[in-house]
Every structure is written in structure tokens, then in C-alpha cells.
Amino acid sequence: RLDAAATKLAKSGATREAIATLRKSFALAPKPETLERIAGLQRDARDFAGAYVTYQDITTRFDSKLSAAQRTRVRRALDELGAITGVIHLRVPDAGATVLVDGAKVGEGPLDSTLRVNLGAHAVRGEKPKPNKLHKLTRSLFGLRGDEIVRVLPS
Predict the structure, then answer these.
(1) Which of 42, 50, 105, 131 lies 20 to 30 angstroms, CA to CA, from 80?
(2) Could you tell me the pTM of the whole model?
(3) DSSP class per residue in 130-149
């Protein structure tokens, strides 16, 4: 039922809703085919980084259960998406610091994490609450390969 509803939503152009419906379907009955459909919709919506992460999830969860054709399809998609996405490596040694990338919370310090992103500029911000004060660091990133160290500093 959910898969049919997701198909209708996708055909009507409601991609985000279709993805949410497929995620519900996956939670009830985890299948690699459902994740492949999600990744396909993410690609159609130009969320290449999201699609990359979803294809990675397929290999993490189901690699030993995939047919040779599925495995080849997933690896090819990862190669293609890897070429048109980048990574931001975040290292935040400060405990309690919150890290946001493009306004979305990605974690709290201490943090040593790599985030897959679409190519382009991204705003990285670290915030650390202090009594009566909030320290912030904001930096735009234009190069997406290599390490970017985000450290919360006094303002």
C-alpha cells in the first residue's frame, strides 16, 4: 500500500512526500529495492548527496544479500554520485558545541565526522553556549575536498 501511495505521490510531483512514504515502508519491511527507489527520487530532486548516502546505506545493510546485478547498479551509482558530490570533514574538540551545516544541525562536539554534500558553497557554523553569552564561528566553504576544522572561538 505504501509503495503504491509513494508511486502516486512521485508521479504527481510530490517527491518529498513520496520519499517520506517510502521511508515508512522501509521501516515496516526493510528491502534494498525500497532504498533504491528512495535514492532514485533523491537523484531526480537533485539531492545527489542524499542519494549517495542512501546507496551507501544499501551496501551497508544488504551487500551480502544483493544480486550481482543489484550490486553492480549500486556501485555504479555510488561512483557517479561520488564524482558530483563532495565531503566536508568536521572536527570539533569542544564538548557541548553544536555544529550546523547550511542551517541544519549535524552534531555536537566533541565531533569527528565526514558529511557528504552537494557541490557548491556551504555555510558551516559552530555554536557553544556560555553563561550569558553565545560564541559563534561562521565560515563559508568553497573547496569541498580535504579537512575543514571548525573550532568554536570567542566572538
Answers:
(1) 105
(2) 0.79
(3) ETTEEEEEEEEE---SSEEE
